[in-house]
Amino acid sequence: MTLAEIRDWVSIVGGLAGLGAIIFTWITARSSANASEIEKVAKAQGETERRVDYLENEFRHLPDGQSVHNLELSLSEMRGDMKELTASVLSVARTANRIDDWLREKTEVKQT
Fold first, then answer.
1. Which residue did the predictor score with more confidence, 88 or 110?
2. Residue 100 and residue 107: Cα distance in Å, rounded?
């Protein structure tokens, strides 16, 4: 091999090495950019998981559909009971008013 051939081969190898370095740099630069994006997504996912865990914990304390239905039925029964009590109290109030009126009339008759 002559010096000119060696120089040609060295320039070809150097060019290929430079091209390889450019490709390697481009790939690793994209990889580090992707790594930062992946880190952002991981943080967002962690925050979302925390919020979902919080909500699941809060929902455990809430009544289920059957419990709400049972409460509605109980309230309906209580409304009926309250109507009966109201009617009974009104009856007692009317009786008390009549007794009061009778006593007042009796007192007025004695005073005259």
1. 88
2. 11
